[in-house]
Amino acid sequence: MVKAVVGANWGDEGKGKITDMMARDADIIVRFQGGANAGHTIVNNYGKFALHTLPSGVFYSHTTSVIGNGVALNIPLLIKEIRSITDRNVPMPKILVSDRAQMVMPYHILFDEYEEERLGGKSFGSTKSGIAPFYSDKYAKIGFQVSELFEEALLKEKTARICEIKNVTLEHLYHKPLLNPEDLLHTLRGYRDMIEPFVCDVSLYLDRALKEGRTILLEGQLGTLKDPDHGIYPMVTSSSTLAAYGAIGAGIPPYEIREIVTVCKAYSSAVGAGAFVSEIFGEEADELRRRGGDGGEFGATTGRPRRMGWFDCVASKYGCRLQGTTDVAFTVLDVLGYLDEIPVCVGYEIDGSVTADFPVTARLEKAKPVLEKLPGWKSDIRGIRRYEELPENCRKYVEFIEQMIGYPITMVSNGPGREDIIYRKSPLK
Ligand code: GDP
C-alpha cells in the first residue's frame, strides 16, 4: 500500500509535519523528486530540525528512508544532513539511495549562481542549489547516475567530455574559471566513497516491499503550483511535484498509490517570484508572517521571509485536483486565531470577468482576488483534539473552504508537533 503526502500550493504547507506524523504507521518513506533546494521543518521529541534531502521519516527507528531515482542528489549535503541529526542524538537511520538517482555536480551549483547573476533583476529567485542546471542536464542526457561512480573507465571518459561542453559556456557566456576534468574526477571518487554504503536498486527493493505488504509513504517537495507542467511556468521548480510522479521518481506502479494526502495551509505563503493573487503586503503581511508556521514564515533552506497571503480557494482547488487528492490535511489553522475577520480568496477577476478556475500564467498575472470575509474565532485552538471542540467559527472556516475546494478535509493540524492533529469525518468522503 502506497500513500503520498504532497502540497497543494507553492510549498511550505507543512508536509514535513504530516509526513513525520504518518511515518509512525509506515515502513518506508521515499523522496521521489526535487533536491536540497527546499526544506521541511519538523518538531519532535529530539528537537526542531530542518531537513532538505532526507525523508521526514528519519526520526523513527522502524522506518527505512529512501532517496528515489527522481531526486537531485547532492551527496556531500546528504552526508552532512545525516551527521547533523545523528549529532543531536537521533539514532542512525536506515537510508537507501537509488543507484539510478542522478547527482548534483559542483558545476550545477556554479551554473545556477552564474545564471542568476546574468539575469540580474529578471532572475527566477533560485535557491542556487543547482536544481535547474541539474535537471536540464538530466534531460539533455549529460547527467551522472550514482551507478556510474562505480565504473572508473566510464567516469574518466565522461568527466572529460562533460567538462568540454561546460567550459564553452563558462568561457563565452559567463566569463568564469574553467572546469578541470582531473579535479572533477577526484571529487567524484570522493562522492563514490561517501555514497557506497547506501546504494540500492530501489525499485526492486520497493517491489519486494509491496509484495510483503509493507506501507510506503511518498514524500513530495514543494506543491502543485511549482510543477513544471501544471504550475505557474516558468516560475516553477524543475521536477514534477505531483503525486503521479511518485510512481516514476520511486519506480513503483502508479496504481499502487491508493491514498493521496494533499497538504493545504490555512493561509497562503510563497517563496520566490511569480504570480500570487491573494498576496498581502505591509503590516498585515508582517503580522501573519511573524505569527505563521512555528516561529514565523521564513524559508527552511534560505531563511528568506516568505510572501504572505490569504487562503486561495481557486489555487487550492486546482492544486488538489492535479494531485488526485483523496484527503486534505489542513494545517496551521491555529495561527489564524488572532484575526477578527479572515479574508478568503474565492475567485479571480480577469479582464472584467470572475472565474473560479485556475488560469495559465499569462492570464494569472492579470488576476485580481475576489475576497470573502469570514468571522474569526479569536481564541487559541492549540491542544484541542476533537473536531467538535473547535470554536464554531473555526469549524465554519474549515467547512467553507472544504466546500469551495471540493475535496475532503479529513485532518486539521493545530500546532507543529506530531500530536497536534484533529481527525475529522468529512461529508465529502
Ligand atoms: P513543508 O516544506 O511543506 O514541510 O513546510 P515547512 O516545514 O517549510 O513549513 C511548515 C512550518 O509550519 C514548519 O515550521 C512547521 O513546524 C510548522 N507547522 C506545521 N503544521 C503546523 C500547524 O498546524 N501549526 C503551526 N503553528 N505550525 C505548523
List keywords for this structure.
429 residues; alpha/beta; 10-stranded mixed beta sheet; 4-stranded mixed beta sheet; 12 helices; 21 strands; globular; binds guanosine-5'-diphosphate
The average pLDDT value, as a whole number, equals 95
What is the overall shape? globular
Oligomer: single chain
CA distance, first residue to last residue: 19 Å
How are the strands of the largest sheet arranged?
9-7-5-2-10-1-11-16-20-21
Which structural category do the helix and sheet elements fall into? alpha/beta
Q: How many beta-strand elements?
A: 21
Which consecutive residue ranges, at least 5 long each, have pLDDT under 50?
Answer: none
Radius of gyration: 22 Å
The small molecules bound here are:
guanosine-5'-diphosphate
Largest sheet: 10 strands, mixed
How many helical stretches? 12
Query: How large a portion of the residues is in β-strands, by DSSP E?
Result: 15-25%
- Helix content bin: 25-40%
Give an overview in words:
The chain has a ten-stranded mixed sheet, with helices on both faces. Strands 15, 17, 18 and 19 form a four-stranded mixed sheet that branches. Strands 12-14-13 form a three-stranded antiparallel sheet, with helices on one face. The longest helix has 23 residues, at 152-174. It has helices at residues 15-22, 75-86, 106-119, 131-139, 152-174, 181-195, 202-211, 243-250, 282-291, 313-323, 361-364, 392-405, and strands at 2-7, 28-31, 40-44, 47-51, 64-67, 72-73, 94-98, 102-103, 199-200, 216-223, 257-265, 268-270, 279-280, 307-309, 311-312, 327-331, 341-350, 353-355, 368-375, 409-413, 421-423. The protein starts with a strand and ends in a 6-residue tail after the last strand. By secondary structure, the protein is α/β, with parallel strands linked by helices. Guanosine-5'-diphosphate binds at residues 7, 11-17, 38-41, 43, 293-294, 300, 331-332, 334-335, 413-416, 420.
